[in-house]
Specification:
The chain is mainly alpha-helical. It folds into two domains: 244 residues, Rossmann fold, CATH 3.40.50.450; 369 residues, no CATH class. Helix content is 61%, strand content 6%. Helix 3 links the parallel strand 2 and strand 3.
């Protein structure tokens, strides 16, 4: 497995090496149209491969082809890809021996048993197919779903021994496994290629079913119609399959290359381009070992968070990427290296490609968050201070000296403008959003990588401002790719118990604590704000009472006039402070964020209970599909939480607190 060399301690992790990953599904040689047009299909495939290579960045890592390595179109594409120097990755529906036996298409029980035993089958055509697949598999990285082989191998043999009784059960199970491996391939692909006759798509695991599943998952599909190979075209939705007679568009080559570039380019787009941001938000200059000395927003959380330590030290020290393997990532990497039959290279890749980038982006995002939210919190306090300073001369100075107080007020107002301008010019809001998306995408990635699963192309979050965080994260995960393992029950137990469970429980506990803290902050600010307005009412009421008493000569007549300036000051001070705190509460939206975290914690707790039940089963009862479902469920919670808080803060830019 090729990985990017770790960066020097002074620099931080480099950007991910772009890798265009192609998935391919196609008919076997037994398909009449495929067999009749194999040369034209090969030519069309070579044309498409050439276009993709031309669009691939010059300094990129090797291109990658993912295919299930079935006899026919899969082998044809694999040979073409290897000849071009591409990486070949093969998610297999079964363990390698059973996969050879199934795809060798033996007609007799004896030949099937021979292949499973590692011996040569008697039928020369079967032997040729087995030899061709084995030769290509030896040059590929194989991710074999072998956890059910002990159950499936006898069923396969029974289908040959007694086709009448066992063929249907075997066919159903074989389709399920092929569809599962195809899902792995789709998740790993930036672009899918389907060599298909456009006919049936209902058979699970078949070419048509895989093409349809890819389109449903949001992956663009290059369809090579086996009857008209040179008229290939690009599909973007399942509905496009309804009209197979549409002529191939003239700009199809440019459209294909645009898809390839979009999948591998980290350039700033949309709002990021306008702000001069993009992946430069993660440049070394943005990282700092120690956090801000005066994180005002965090201090508000500490003061009102209800943990009994309102004045604790808040300045943070961030872990450098070079330290993660022996620091926060040590337990995870140890669990990855200890997996039964695991891929040692993948653990190293998780360190360099995922964990190092995670701690880097997480630290930068935390600093940007403190700067953005702290800056806006400062604006509210400065606004209150400016109003207070403007009126403070009344009880404390003669009107002729008001200029000094006005000067302070002016300085505070100018400081608000400068602070707001700096926040906007530095793009704090956009940079925080973008780097936080990168960090959260990478946080959950190790378990997904170890299970050989990923978020499907069409299920990544969409942003109207910038999509480089999604490309950055996807390319970071693309380099490690699928592990070279045979998935077994013991392997699944190691990933679920050693990696996924600690992650889910840690995130659940974090969100529980966060929800509790933010609820306290919300209610604490409410109480202080309400108390401020109450004091304002009290001060005005006292002045009115004093004036009334003076009117009926119960107190000296001059008292109201003597106290008027002080009461006027208090009548402005208290509601101004209350309004500032209410503004901070509105800006921080603590109650809504608490609700978001509470929901996330509840969802993660539910997933943890399911995971605990699954881990209670014997190894032979653990199945890949169930494990992947739990990993995706946890991943969905992460993505939903990201989308929720970004929806809340999306329109809250640094602005004048008017």
């Amino acid at each position: 497995m090729t990985t990017v060399a770790p960066a020097s301690p002074a620099a931080g992790p480099p950007p991910p090496c772009p890798c265009l990953s192609i998935g391919l599904t196609g008919h076997r040689s037994g398909n009449a149209a495929y067999a009749a047009n194999q040369s034209a299909i090969a030519a069309a495939l070579a044309e498409i491969f050439g276009l993709l290579e031309a669009a691939h960045p010059a300094a990129a890592c090797a291109m990658r082809l993912n295919t299930l390595l079935a006899e026919g179109a899969d082998l044809l594409a694999a040979d073409l890809a290897l000849a071009r120097g591409w990486e070949l990755v093969t998610p297999l529906p079964f363990g390698e021996a059973l996969n050879l036996a199934v795809n060798g298409l033996p007609m007799t029980l004896a030949d099937a048993e021979a292949i499973l035993a590692g011996a040569a089958p008697g039928d020369p055509e079967v032997a040729a197919r087995v030899g061709a697949i084995a030769a290509v598999a030896a040059r590929a990285r194989c991710f074999a779903l072998a956890e059910q082989d002990a159950e499936l191998a006898p069923l396969f043999l029974a289908s040959l021994a007694d086709p009448g009784a066992a063929a249907a059960p075997w066919s159903a199970r074989m389709g399920e496994r092929a569809a599962l491996a195809a899902r792995v391939m789709i998740e790993q692909a930036d672009i899918m290629i389907g060599i298909w006759d456009g006919a049936a798509r209902a058979e699970p695991g078949g070419t048509g079913h895989t093409v349809f599943a890819a389109l449903q998952a949001g992956a663009p599909v290059v369809w090579i119609d086996v009857a008209r190979p040179q008229a290939w075209r690009i599909l973007h939705a399942p509905e496009a399959l309804a009209d197979r007679d549409t002529p191939a568009p003239e700009d199809r080559a440019a459209a294909l290359q645009a898809l390839a570039r979009a999948a591998t380019t980290l350039a700033a787009t949309g709002g990021a381009r306008r702000s001069g941001l993009g992946a430069e938000a993660l440049a070394p200059a943005a990282w700092r070992r120690h956090g801000r000395r005066w994180p005002l927003y965090r201090r508000m959380e500490a003061l009102f968070g209800g943990d009994g330590r309102p004045f604790r030290r808040l300045r943070q020290t961030y872990e450098h990427p070079s330290e993660v393997a022996t620091g926060s990532g040590a337990a995870l990497l140890a669990a990855a290296r200890a997996l039964p039959g695991g891929d040692p290279a993948l653990a190293s890749a998780i360190d360099s490609e995922v964990l190092q980038r995670f701690v880097w982006s997480d630290a930068i995002s935390a600093e940007l968050s403190d700067a953005y939210r702290g800056g806006m919190t400062l604006n509210f306090f400065l606004s209150a201070a400016a109003v207070t300073a403007g009126i403070a001369y009344q009880p404390f100075a003669h009107p002729i000296d008001k200029w000094g107080f006005a000067l302070v007020e002016l300085a505070l107002l100018v400081l608000i403008l400068v602070n707001t301008s700096l926040g906007r010019r530095r793009g704090l809001h956009a940079r925080w959003f973008e780097t936080r998306r990168v960090a959260e995408y990478l946080r959950h990635a190790p378990a997904m990588l170890l299970l050989g699963t990923a978020r499907a192309p069409g299920r990544w979050a969409r942003s109207s401002d910038a999509d480089w965080p999604e490309t950055y994260a996807r390319q970071s995960l693309r380099r490690p790719g699928l592990p070279q393992v045979a998935v077994t029950g013991a392997y699944l137990r190691g990933v679920l118990g050693g990696v996924l469970a600690p992650h889910i429980r840690g995130q659940r506990d974090y969100h529980r604590g966060k929800a509790h803290r933010l609820e306290h902050v919300h209610h604490g600010l409410d109480r202080i704000s309400e108390a401020s307005f109450g004091l304002a009412i009290l001060s005005v009421s006292l002045f009115l009472i004093l004036s009334g008493l003076a009117a009926v000569t119960m107190v000296p007549e001059g008292w109201p006039e003597a106290a008027a300036k002080a009461f006027t000051f208090l009548g402005v001070l208290f509601p101004t402070v209350g309004a500032a705190l209410a503004g901070i509460r509105y800006f921080g939206d603590f109650e809504r964020f608490a609700a978001i975290s509470r929901v996330a914690a509840e969802k993660l707790d539910s997933i943890d209970r399911r995971l605990t039940l699954l881990l209670g089963a014997e190894d032979d009862q653990l199945d890949y599909a169930g494990a992947v479902e739990l990993a995706h469920a946890a991943d969905d919670v992460v993505f939903t939480e990201i989308e929720s808080w970004q929806a809340v803060f999306g329109g809250k830019y640094i602005t004048i607190p008017a």
